[in-house]
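Final report, closing paragraph on structural work. Over the funding period we assembled a curated collection of sequence-structure pairs, and we close with a single example.
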Amino acid sequence: MQLFVLKAKYATTSAIATALEYVMFGLLKYQGFAGTYAHIISYACGMVLNFLLQKRFIFDLKRSLSTAFLMAMMVSLGGMALSTGIFVTLTQWEWFHQNDYVAKMIATGIVFFYNFYLKRFVFEKKFI
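Its predicted structure, as stored:
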């Protein structure tokens, strides 16, 4: 039950960071950025906000702040690579290319679990 509550809290802060990410994505697309570039830039903004929210509301910090930040950014960069790979692969299909928000949502959903378990290790030094 405790793990479920932790995941629910993580999902809430992730939703806030993801909302920022999606707003940034839309603004960048509106400004003429290609989908992949808009995805990468918006993901980077979301990952910094997500770290700050996770540190404050979710995990008990068991490492130095600088070590946790560097490790979290490395995990997030891995998540960005995974998310971008999924996004680029999906948008090769015409329908997803025309509906790139759907491709972004699918990538976000898949990467959520990758991020949760690895970030828990970063902050609390445990996976489960």
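Residues 2-124 form one domain. The longest helix spans residues 2-30. We thank the funder for supporting this effort.
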